[in-house]
Automatic annotation (TrEMBL):
Residues annotated as domain Fe2OG dioxygenase: 213-320
Needed cofactors: Fe cation
GO terms assigned for molecular function: dioxygenase activity; metal ion binding
PROSITE patterns in the record: FE2OG_OXY
Domain of life: Eukaryota
Keyword Oxidoreductase tagged: yes
Protein name (database record): Fe2OG dioxygenase domain-containing protein
Family: Belongs to the iron/ascorbate-dependent oxidoreductase family.
Record flagged with keyword Magnesium: no
Classification of source organism: Eukaryota, Viridiplantae, Streptophyta, Embryophyta, Tracheophyta
Annotated keywords: Iron, Metal-binding, Oxidoreductase
Length: 320
């Protein structure tokens, strides 16, 4: 059987594609995905193309419009019956979804908004300033900025830029944090540490244990902050902002902006984690699933990218 001319062209194109060179050229700009958007590209580089399995869960959000559970933490320290109800909601969500949103969590809206604004200020500052922080060596600097930590090892690059650092158990020196978001990173991290203590108490009670159980295990001591920037994409159907994964921590506290893009895999459907004003998203990590003997579930989630008609999507990922 002969090979058609079209097939020959396709095979030749694949053979001619030098992925390693494309990755290297992109990385050496130190401008990340935002640099591509600033250059007004109309077609995304091939390194960002993902292969979507037709047999995998729906590539869009669930057609049944499932809703991630929401938990109101108001008055849990003052009202014992209410606290019991909240604990039960968290238990059910942790066992069946691995995700839930919390409202009235004690962190002021102004702090949440300023944290999101600080992340945008970082990524939208002058490229020359950001390039000074660009690195692929986690140990080189207290704060690392790059695009795709696994750029050279993943099958396809994700449409996002990130900066991250460890904020606990040892806070970095203030001068080691970017001036455009330094103060709010320190304030937000302290607030999330307080919330983490409360959440670990509630999770302990949801396991039928003493409220201090998980905190006494020192689950609350570490804190890593990763700030992700997902620009609008000219070809969103070809790529992802973040491929499906689980988190290798105890819990993650996620702060997303009003645009949306975060999805969780539930009952073989991708379900939108729709932004709720003032809410924080909590998800169970691999370590908590491990120490609870699989009672609490660490589930796969991902981020879809946005079409040009949408604004940039910001997601702040704080891992305990």
């Amino acid at each position: 059987m002969g090979i058609s001319k079209t097939s020959e062209i396709s095979v030749t194109a694949k053979l001619d594609y030098d992925r390693a060179s494309e990755l290297k050229a992109f990385d050496e700009t130190k401008d990340g995905v935002k640099g591509l958007v600033d250059a007004s590209i109309t077609h995304i580089p091939r390194m960002f193309h993902h292969e979507f399995d037709k047999d995998s869960p729906s590539s869009s959000s669930s057609t049944t419009k499932l809703v991630v559970p929401s938990v109101d933490l108001a008055d849990i320290h003052l009202d014992a019956p209410r606290r019991k109800t909240v604990v039960e909601k968290i238990r059910e969500a942790s066992e069946t979804w691995g995700f839930f949103q919390v409202v009235n969590h004690g962190i002021e809206i102004t702090v949440l908004d300023e944290m999101k604004n600080g992340v945008i200020r970082f990524f939208e500052q002058d490229s020359e300033v950001k390039r000074e922080l660009y690195s692929r060596d986690d140990a080189a600097k207290p704060l690392v900025y790059n695009s795709n930590f696994d750029l050279y090892s993943s099958p396809a690059a994700n449409w996002r830029d990130t900066f991250y650092c460890f904020m606990a158990p040892h806070y970095p020196k203030p001068e080691d944090l970017p001036s455009v978001c330094r103060d709010i990173m320190l304030e937000y991290s302290k607030e999330v540490m307080k919330l983490g203590n409360v959440l670990f108490e509630l999770l302990s009670e949801a396991l039928g244990l003493n409220p201090n159980y998980l905190n006494d295990m020192r689950c609350n001591e570490g804190l890593a902050v990763a700030c992700h920037y997902y620009p609008s994409c000219p070809q969103p159907e070809l790529t992802l902002g973040e491929t499906k994964h689980t988190d290798n921590d105890f819990i993650t506290v996620l702060l997303q902006d009003h645009i949306g893009g975060l999805q969780v895999l539930h009952e073989n459907n991708w379900v939108d984690v729709s932004p709720v004003p003032g809410a924080l998203v909590i998800n169970i990590g691999d370590l908590l699933q491990l120490i609870t003997n699989d009672i609490f579930k660490s589930v796969e989630h991902r981020v879809v990218v946005l079409a040009p008609k949408f604004d940039t999507f910001v997601l702040i990922d704080v891992s305990h």
